[in-house]
Specification:
By secondary structure, the protein is of the alpha/beta class. The protein folds into two domains: 285 residues, Zn peptidases (Aminopeptidase); 130 residues, Alpha-Beta Plaits (2-Layer Sandwich), CATH 3.30.70.360. The protein has a six-stranded mixed sheet. A four-stranded antiparallel sheet has the order 10-11-9-12, with helices on one face. A hairpin with a 2-residue loop joins strand 4 and strand 5. InterPro entries: ArgE/DapE, Bact_exopeptidase_dim_dom, Peptidase_M20, Peptidase_M20_dimer, Peptidase_M20A. It is an enzyme of class 3 (hydrolase). It comes from Pseudooceanicola marinus. Keywords: Cobalt, Hydrolase, Metal-binding, Zinc.
């Protein structure tokens, strides 16, 4: 076939699978893979296993034993499927995470119903990123039917725990060498169908604890309130750290606009006794808190070093320590991920660029994600730079109530992915 004939046949093959794409997305949404704690990972992997084996893929189910989060109650299961071509060549790998975040409040549809309404499929994970997973499967299947004599191999993976760092998913697979023979990676995260995401900002999570001395709440002068010490830390952060971060700007094409600066989120804050469960009819005892703990989520830019990021927080704490009697603290790192950004000249970027132009008649926008995703592990552990995020869905809908993915967006994204396969594996 000529190149125009291949493009036309792929277009027709994708459109012919519209109902199948809808049903596949609904099926995936209806498996509630909530993380935490990590529910139904095996169930969704078994579903994907049946689906992909039925289409001629060889599959492996891999449990990330010993990884962060893995337990006998909540095992971290992953699936990797591979379809060999008619002859040797490069490997294109589509990676999607199977976990979804907590439902939260404010839904007007069933979060796990997969309702189709006005061309949109609703549910937790519809946008982030079961719609992208379904689109990549449909794209691969359509391409295989149209171009059965392709070169190389196609891989599709469904991996655990991206929403909590990906250590039981892509990180584990990368450590075990699963990306050693992969040449191109497309991660169908919801960055909008006409965008190519080149990478992400860095992240540093830490827990800060301030110390005090317990005493009777009626005589707080006999103790030392750790919460007040933490209040002093918060005050200094407001006075010096937050204004300093707002002045830092990046040349990375980060979206949305507010993420082009360094940011810090106070993820949680707790002091004193553990909270009494809502279903327990009791009152707390009167005690001065001897511990307060704060978890911070610091997002940083490619222009910043991790040592600079940590040093800024330590400067805040040491300033408070120098000004406040009896102040002591501990700072414990929970996670660090360095920023990453694929070059625009990378083969997978160029291929997806051409596919977007062919499908939508417009040049793509190149962006960087405000938050991290599993590209971090493919880059740092898998040693593969030729990786992007591209998929259907609107980024702003991720983790929101009434999350949805548009059917037409999935179809167009699937066509882009199929054209990219044709470009990379039939040349």
């Amino acid at each position: 076939m000529t190149e125009p004939q291949v493009k036309m046949r792929l277009h027709e093959a994708i459109l012919a699978r519209r109902d199948e794409l809808i049903a596949l997305t609904q099926d995936l949404i209806r498996i509630p893979t909530l993380n935490p704690p990590g529910e139904n990972y095996r169930e969704i992997c078994d579903y994907l296993d049946r689906r992909l084996r039925g289409k001629g893929f060889e599959t492996q189910l891999v449990r990330a034993e010993g990884a962060v989060g893995d337990s006998d109650k909540y095992p971290r299961w992953n699936i990797v499927a591979r379809k060999e071509g008619a002859r040797s060549g490069e490997c294109v790998h589509f990676n999607s995470h199977i976990d979804v975040v907590d439902v939260g409040r404010g839904w007007t549809t069933d979060p796990f119903g997969g309702e189709l309404k006005d061309g949109k499929i609703y549910g937790r994970g519809a946008c982030d990123m079961k719609g992208g997973l379904a689109a990549s499967i449909i794209a691969a299947e359509a391409f295989i039917d149209v171009c059965p004599d392709f070169s190389g191999a196609i891989e599709i993976s469904g991996t655990a725990d991206e929403e909590s760092g990906g250590f039981g998913g892509v990180a584990y697979l990368a450590e075990k060498g699963f990306y050693a023979k992969v040449d191109h990676v497309i991660i169908p995260e919801p960055l909008n169908k006409d965008r190519i995401c080149l990478g992400h900002r860095g992240v540093w999570w830490a827990e800060i604890e301030t110390h005090g001395e317990i005493a009777h709440g009626s005589m707080p002068f006999l103790g030392d309130c750790a919460v007040r010490h933490m209040g002093a830390v918060l005050h200094e952060m407001e006075e010096s750290l937050f204004p300093a971060l707002a002045q830092k700007r990046t040349e990375m094409p980060v979206v949305p606009e507010g993420a082009k600066q360094s940011t810090l989120n106070i993820n949680s804050l707790h002091g004193g006794q553990a909270e009494i469960p809502r279903d327990v009819n009791a009152l707390p005892s009167p005690c001065v808190p001897d511990s307060a703990r704060m978890v911070i989520d610091r997002r940083f830019l490619i222009e910043e070093s991790i040592d600079e990021v940590i040093g800024e927080m330590k400067t805040v704490l040491d300033k408070v320590k120098g000004e406040r009697p009896n102040f002591s603290y501990e700072m414990r790192e929970m996670m660090r991920v360095l920023p990453t950004m694929t070059e625009r000249e990378a083969p997978v970027v160029q291929s997806v660029t051409r596919a977007i132009q062919d499908t939508m008649g417009t040049a793509p926008q190149y962006v960087v994600s405000p938050g991290t995703y599993d590209q971090k592990h493919i880059d740092r552990i898998g040693r593969l730079k030729n990786c992007i995020a591209y998929g259907p869905g609107i980024l702003d809908l991720a983790h929101k109530p009434d999350e949805y993915v548009g059917v037409d967006d999935m179809l167009q994204s699937a066509e882009v992915m199929a054209l990219s396969l044709a470009d990379l594996l039939t040349g």
